[in-house]
Amino acid sequence: MEQKVHSFIKKHELIRPGQTVLAAVSGGPDSMALLHYFCAIKEEYQLQLHVVSIDHGLRGEDSYEDLAYVKRMCEQWNVEFTGTSVDVPSYKSMEKMGTQETARKLRYDFFKEMMDEKNIDVLALGHHGDDQAETMMMQMVRNATPESIHGIPVRRAFGRGEIIRPFLNVTKDEIIHYLKKHQVEFRVDVSNEETDYTRNAFRKHVIPYFRQQNPKFSQHMQRLSERLRDDQEYIKEQAKEVLKTMDFSSKEERCVRFSIQTFKTFPLALQRSAFHLILNYLYVDQADDISYLHEEMFMDLISEQKSNATMDFPRGLKIIRAYDSVTLTFRIDEDIEPLFKTLQIGETIQLPDGSLLQADWTDRPEEEGTYVYLCDSHHVKFPLIVRTRMNGDRIRVRGMNGSKKVKDIFIDQKIPSDSRNSWPLVTDSNGDVLWLIGLKKGGEYIRKPSGKWLRLKYENKADK
């Protein structure tokens, strides 16, 4: 076993000479083998070795004796030791978490404290190849996306340094053989025999069957894990090119917007990977309750013919399609207050979004443009009204016979449905719609009128 672990460490560059190593040791076979192994290579690598052991308070006197045993062995082998106890039941009750989830959080929180306190470079954990096989099989059962099937990482950033797992290429049987060979005693956690926890059930009933079919099943799963991580890392890097075409808001608002047409120019594999990168950004780290079904729902949304659609994801995330635009956001807009303001000549009013609308007289009708409205003042009854749309609103669009529904103009212009109720329009006091701002103009427009012209000028807040 020693040679296999040595080669694995070298292949993945898990430790370097002169580093400070913190070994997490519970007293069980895996961690005792880890401790013995590091004691054996300590001089060769010139390592500073520290051991941490945690009593989770879940098995009464037995868990305390585990910690005491590790302490005795560290004294015997001349290794610096730190032990602590954590109150899992109390924290579990307070935070409404599961037992295993709570124990893991408290355990890793203490590991991080120890790394800071003792300037630790790497935290070594005793996970082995059978753990890897169990983890990957559990991930496959729970999910069907490649992003969710990655196993236990050989190394990852943690605290001020990183976590390493040098035993991932050896089996439990090899570890037991190693302990017997070196006459190292270990403690047995009887709760590992219970099948109430999913992992234990996989360990006792699922993995043995696969190992009967292939004695090297655990090694194969480790290689698969490494291959999947390498492939996913490459695809993820390529998918970052997709993200460059998107608009990311600040993390306070947590909002992403992109064009469907642009998004679909990328290969399907990159589209899917980009979707998960977006979720990692929005959720900070991808939610466990996101499954392949959510991915399929998203892909259907951008492929279907509907111009407007909304989809609800876990934890309040909304995905909104409006024609070519897709927005992913946690922000829930409050009900929009209807806009209704009067506007007299010489006044400038501010709209709810901060934009400005000004009314005055002019004798230069050539000034008209997208955001400037001109009209023969003889056919307008004052004061003007600036408001949001109402059911049944129609406008006599210049250059057209008859009138057209404001609702139909929004559809023709592909205005997102969530923007229509806040879009400002201007009427005279008779209720005739003069201007659907920025979209369509009504009212009389005579080339050579007598008298003054009414001029309305709209200034978007983004242009101010």
Automatic annotation (TrEMBL):
Residues 384-458 form the Lysidine-tRNA(Ile) synthetase C-terminal domain. SUPFAM superfamilies: Adenine nucleotide alpha hydrolases-like, MesJ substrate recognition domain-like, PheT/TilS domain. Ligates lysine onto the cytidine present at position 34 of the AUA codon-specific tRNA(Ile) that contains the anticodon CAU, in an ATP-dependent manner. Cytidine is converted to lysidine, thus changing the amino acid specificity of the tRNA from methionine to isoleucine. The N-terminal region contains the highly conserved SGGXDS motif, predicted to be a P-loop motif involved in ATP binding. It comes from the Bacteria. Keywords: ATP-binding, Cytoplasm, Ligase, Nucleotide-binding, tRNA processing. The lineage of its organism: Bacteria, Bacillati, Bacillota, Bacilli, Bacillales. Gene3D superfamilies: 3.30.465.60, HUPs. The keyword ATP-binding applies. Pfam families: ATP_bind_3, TilS, TilS_C. Its EC number is 6.3.4.19. One of its GO terms (biological process) is tRNA modification. InterPro entries: Lysidine-tRNA-synth_C, Rossmann-like_a/b/a_fold, TilS/TtcA_N, tRNA_Ile_lys_synt, tRNA_Ile_lys_synt_N, tRNA_Ile_lys_synt_subst-bd. It is found in: Cytoplasm. NCBIfam families: lysidine_TilS_C, lysidine_TilS_N. It is an enzyme of class 6 (ligase). Belongs to the tRNA(Ile)-lysidine synthase family. GO terms for cellular component: cytoplasm. This is tRNA(Ile)-lysidine synthase. One of its GO terms (molecular function) is ATP binding. ATP binds at residues 26-31. PANTHER family: TRNA(ILE)-LYSIDINE SYNTHASE-RELATED. Its main location: cytoplasm. The keyword Membrane does not apply.
